[in-house]
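thought: user wants a sequence for this fold. calling inverse folding tool.
action: design(structure=
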């Protein structure tokens, strides 16, 4: 990654970086010192804004208070937790390593570590997912008072276990009508909780 950053430097000369995003996979497996090292090279290689938004995606099952404090000290000022669901059975089906209580614990630790901008990712449209389950997940997420929510429909990506399960018939293909019902339910619930939709899958509190 560091080599790649240096190689791109000449191609983006003159462009001011105002957001830095650690995403894809599980970047919260990186130690805080590694994140700091990357950010320092970023500042050496590019013109970085005075107060950039620096986001790190995190799996709730991979963080503790010390790690989060280290990220904050390194300059990360926004966390995006891949909660995905607050239903234990759904988390198990999705192959997530975290439990439902660990989502709340991660958000609480992040607040204690000084993070004032926290996002939660949720997935809807799971096979045979009752609407009531989805609504409970949204309500549980809201109870943690995040600043931003990203709600994504389950998609079947080639080369994934889900794609193989659908192909061999052990799992039904996602139902677009059911997913639409889930989407509309969330879109109805979130404005009343102070969230504004600004993109197809994203809702935020004002200014967030």
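)
observation: tool returned 208 residues.
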């Amino acid at each position: 990654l560091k080599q790649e950053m240096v190689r791109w430097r000449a191609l983006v000369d003159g462009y001011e970086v105002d957001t830095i995003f650690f995403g894809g996979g599980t970047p919260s497996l990186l130690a805080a010192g590694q994140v700091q090292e990357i950010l320092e090279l970023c500042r050496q290689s590019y013109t970085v804004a005075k107060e950039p938004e620096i986001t790190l995606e995190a799996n709730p099952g991979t963080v503790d208070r010390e790690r989060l404090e280290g990220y904050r000290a390194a300059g990360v000022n926004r966390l995006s937790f891949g909660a995905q669901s607050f239903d234990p059975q759904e988390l198990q089906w999705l192959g997530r390593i975290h439990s439902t209580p660990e989502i709340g614990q991660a958000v609480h630790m992040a607040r204690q570590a000084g993070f004032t901008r926290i996002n939660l990712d949720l997935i809807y449209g799971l096979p045979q997912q009752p609407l009531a389950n989805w609504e409970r997940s949204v309500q549980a997420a809201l109870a943690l008072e995040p600043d931003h929510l990203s709600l994504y429909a389950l998609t079947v990506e080639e080369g994934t276990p889900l794609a193989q399960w659908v192909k061999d018939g052990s799992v039904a293909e996602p139902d677009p009508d059911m997913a639409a019902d889930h989407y509309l339910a969330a879109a109805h619930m979130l404005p009343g909780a102070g969230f504004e939709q600004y993109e197809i899958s994203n809702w935020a509190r004002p200014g967030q």
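thought: summarizing for user.
answer: Here is the designed sequence. The first helix runs from residue 2 to 8.
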